[in-house]
Design a protein that fits this description.
- This protein is an alpha/beta fold and 213 residues long.
- The chain has one domain: TIM Barrel (Alpha-Beta Barrel).
- Helices cover 35% and strands 19% of the residues.
- The chain is built from 8 helices and 8 strands; from the N terminus they run E-H-E-H-E-H-E-H-E-E-H-E-H-E-H-H.
- An 8-stranded parallel β-sheet has the order 1-8-7-6-5-4-3-2.
- Strand 7, helix 6 and strand 8 form a beta-alpha-beta unit.
- The longest helix has 15 residues.
- It binds D-xylitol-5-phosphate (DX5) and zinc ion.
- Zinc ion (ZN) binds next to strand 2.
Length: 213
Amino acid sequence: MIVSPSILSADFLNLERDIKLLEKNGADFIHIDIMDGVFVANSTWGPSTVTAIRQITTLPLDVHLMINQPERLIEHYLATKADIITIHPESTVFLRKSLLKIKKYGAKVGVALKLETPVEMIKYCLDLVDIVLLLTCDEGFGGQNFQLLSLRKISQIAKWRQEHNLTFKIEVDGGIGPETGKLCKEAGADILVAGSYVFGKDIKTAIEVLKKV
Ligand code: DX5
Ligand code: ZN
């Protein structure tokens, strides 16, 4: 499995130290949740933080934009040289256009769904994306429980992927640990995002365990 630890659970006063620890201990990506306090009831960082993080790690930056009207800021996030930029269809009326813009600038394109959003909402852009991210708990905060209804969504997306010979990866985000990660893998997931699980214990062991679920 590809493991993308979420720095939402890092020590914000020691972000550099924690990101270097992730890098040293086998993280594949760094997952950065951008929240605007409107699309989700929490706020985190902006493009300048992503630019700063870019200076201290060579790991792919997996930027998950949980912001309203991401089209207003996509160019700023592209300028950070983040590797993956993921946006939500629930936050924009310019989904396809925004995905195409990310693609045009050479970043990997991700589309994400909140827990209760039906998978049909992204059915017609699956041909455009490199990653489908499914929130597997309620959005906005780390440390919440995985919701089993996600498994059906993963399976449906994996089924469409197979039927249409597509190659995007399926990323799951929220309440992921060894048991839930394994369930997601069996349903078709390729990338595990984990915040509280990775930072809640020995980082090295946690990443190793997730890679092998
Ligand atoms: C939730 C965020 C997640 C969060 C996951 O809205 O998108 O990336 O960090 O945290 P855990 O792994 O603690 O559920
Ligand atoms: Zn996320």
